């Protein structure tokens, strides 16, 4: 473990587990549990490759993500960002992930999934807690991407030499009862690459507190058209870390990359 990582871990334990060594072990257990809820590797299936990266702000984080094969041949993808940081945010993220895993088996309509998630979180309302969520489906046979967005940064598509944002946002999950969400359909082509990310990636700052703006993010992502999903996510994180000059992140950072194979 690096010196910086040790300092982050020590500060987190003192803040969230002030009782000492026994609670330090509890913190490690919390990290292990969160790791078990996240993807352990990427996914390659027929015409698509998916890669993933997660960097928590502290010992555990409030971001979450997963991707999986569904019985109808679709690939499901979701990711989100809970308001707040640390252990309380991580516990709420686990609640959201458990709820989503029960919902996504009920159908393939992404807008319905997010609307149902919102209602269930509102029914279990926790003051000051809500999350941004994006749920997507990819049809590997037709290369059609379908998604709905509850307050997440817009996905970025690089196709050929062009880079553009996809869809629109919506109310975060668990904030307002009765919220509805749009359903966006994008026809992808071989070689296309889509970046889904939480705002921790888009709002990374350097030592002078200058934020990595959306325009810069699009320029970086536009260079990933000829790269694999794994190469793309590594390239983006390397460029972002170079911009930050080694400054620690101000938020959890999560990214899922979908690459349409030739």
Give a verbal description of the structure.
With 262 residues, the chain is an alpha+beta fold. The protein folds into 2 domains: 1-37, no CATH class; 39-260, Phosphatase 2c, domain 1. The chain has 7 helices and 11 strands. Strand 1 and strand 2 form a beta hairpin. Helix 3 (86-103) packs across helix 4 (110-123). The protein is globular. 39% of the residues are buried.
Give the averaged pLDDT, no decimals.
83
Class from secondary-structure proportions: alpha+beta
- Please state the overall shape, judged from the principal axes of the Cα atoms: globular
* Percent of residues in beta strands: 25-35%
- How many structural domains can be distinguished in the coordinates? 2
Q: Could you give a short description of this structure?
A:
This protein has 262 residues and is α+β, with helices and mostly antiparallel strands. The protein has seven helices and eleven strands. 35% of the residues lie in helices and 26% in strands.
């Amino acid at each position: 473990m690096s010196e910086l990582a040790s300092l982050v871990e020590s500060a987190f334990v003192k803040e969230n587990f002030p009782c000492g060594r026994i609670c330090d072990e509890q913190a490690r257990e919390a990290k292990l549990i969160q790791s078990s809820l996240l993807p352990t590797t990427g996914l390659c299936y027929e015409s698509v490759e998916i890669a993933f990266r997660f960097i928590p702000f502290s010992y555990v984080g409030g971001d979450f993500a997963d991707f999986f094969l569904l019985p109808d041949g679709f690939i499901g993808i979701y990711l989100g960002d809970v308001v707040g940081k640390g252990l309380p945010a991580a516990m709420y993220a686990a609640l959201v992930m458990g709820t989503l895993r029960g919902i996504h088996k009920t159908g393939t309509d992404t807008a319905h999934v997010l609307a149902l998630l919102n209602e269930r979180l509102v029914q279990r309302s926790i003051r000051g807690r809500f999350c941004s969520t994006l749920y997507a489906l990819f049809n590997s046979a037709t290369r059609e991407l379908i998604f709905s967005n509850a307050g997440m940064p817009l996905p970025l598509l690089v196709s050929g030499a062009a880079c553009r944002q996809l869809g629109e946002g919506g109310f975060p999950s668990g904030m307002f009862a009765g919220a509805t969400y749009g359903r966006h359909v994008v026809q992808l082509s071989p070689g296309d690459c889509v970046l889904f990310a939480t705002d921790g990636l888009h709002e990374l700052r350097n030592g002078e507190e200058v934020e990595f703006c959306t325009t810069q993010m699009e320029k970086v992502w536009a260079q990933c058209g000829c790269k694999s999903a794994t190469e793309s996510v590594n390239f983006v994180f390397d460029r972002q870390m170079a911009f930050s000059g080694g400054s620690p992140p101000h938020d959890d950072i999560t990214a899922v990359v979908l690459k349409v194979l030739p």
